[in-house]
Amino acid sequence: MNSILIVDDTAFTRHVLRSIFETLGLHVVAEAASGEEAVRNYCLYKPSLVTMDITMPGMNGLTASRKIMELDKDAKIIICSAVSRHDTVIKAIQAGARDFIAKPLQLERIEWAVQKVLGTGVDIRRRDRHVKQIAEVLV
């Protein structure tokens, strides 16, 4: 089963992402609120995928992504950030991100990115049962 590490300094965003991943049938193994915590949790859990915010207290998401890539060149990281300027997206890709999702988060965009990065499909019937729940969380 694919495992996910969610990294965002905002508890609400972590909650939304956890709900989305669980709806897609993915297992969230850990969460982190800072870049330092992200690197520690990556080493501890070796997740299949990391979602990473950029702007966080302490070590930012770009630096954390670079450090994770130094530890594991095959790490799969998706940046999820409200900062979506062209130069920021380029820096994210240079840091090792496989994809970039601009906030606000959208279920279909997250699903597409996960499928692309992990090379897997999701259980559409399971997803459809929970779309309404996620929509309520996002509102």
From TrEMBL:
GO biological process, alphabetically ordered: phosphorelay signal transduction system
Q: Which PROSITE patterns match?
A: RESPONSE_REGULATORY (PS50110)
Q: Which InterPro entries match?
A: CheY-like_superfamily, Sig_transdc_resp-reg_receiver, ST_Response_Regulator
Q: Has UniProt tagged this entry with the keyword Phosphoprotein?
A: yes
Q: Which UniProt keywords apply?
A: Phosphoprotein
For the Response regulatory domain, which residue ranges apply? 3-118
Pfam families recorded: Response_reg (PF00072)
- Residues with the 4-aspartylphosphate modification: 53
Keyword presence, Phosphoprotein: yes
Protein name, UniProt field: Response regulator
